[in-house]
Amino acid sequence: MTKTPGARDRNRAALTLAIKEDARAQLATAGAQALSLRAVARNLGMASSAVYRYYPSRDELLTALIIDAYNSLGDAVERADPGGEPRARWLAAWHAVRAWALANRHEYALIYGSPVPGYSAPQDTVVPATRVPLLMIAIAHAAGLADAEIDPVLRDQLSNVTATISIDLPPGALARVMVAWTQLFGMVGFELFGQLVGSADPADALFDFAARSAADFVGL
After folding, report:
1. CB contact at 8 A, 20 and 59
2. Does the domain spanning 62-218 belong to CATH 3.90.1260.10?
3. Which letter does DSSP use for residue 166 in this model?
4. Cis (ω within 30 of 0) for the bond into 202?
């Protein structure tokens, strides 16, 4: 039998959510580098000591926001996965990343923008951060991509990567996925940060062309 949360648990969950929502508002107005637990407490009408019971430091609150952002992106991309033919799955993943980023610009900047000075992401962020790249690697694996000739140093590096994940993709194929991965976030970042204004803005057609070109490059 599932235990129904008591009033204390519900209140704690509601206050945790309120703290995060106020922190996200700070991301939008001042940026992650200016995130302040004291400002959160002031905005919520709480004593600073009360907020510190939930998040003992700014870095712990930042970590919670980063994990939430990665998981939100992962959820969006996984929901968009139609299954079946690898190329269709690849294109759906690309478009889902872009749609999420356009709808969550400040969260995107938090996880893929400039590093926050003085903050070092803990191990807790690794699994959420790998959800989307692992899905893209799984799509490449489902397509049965062949190996490719790559520099021996890169081959050794990527062999170490494949040894740590459960998807057995040849290093040469993984290299192509990684190149496409960086292109995806380069495209999204250029669009979000105004680098395409005056050229390919809106970027719908350019992005679709890039997604298809990347699929061709990877071999899908």
Report:
1. no
2. no
3. S
4. yes
Token output for 50? 């009360």
Does the CA dihedral 62-65-67-70 come out positive or negative? Answer: negative
Residue at token pair 């959510």: 17
Q: Are 74 and 132 in contact (CB under 8 A)?
A: yes
pTM over 0.85: yes
pLDDT tens, residue by residue, 121-165: 999 999 999 999 999 999 999 999 999 899 999 999 998 888 888
The answer to whether 50 and 61 have CB atoms below 8 angstroms apart is no
**For residue 75, how far is the Cα from the chain centroid?**
10
Residues 6+ apart with CB under 8 A from 107: 24, 27, 65, 68, 69, 72, 73
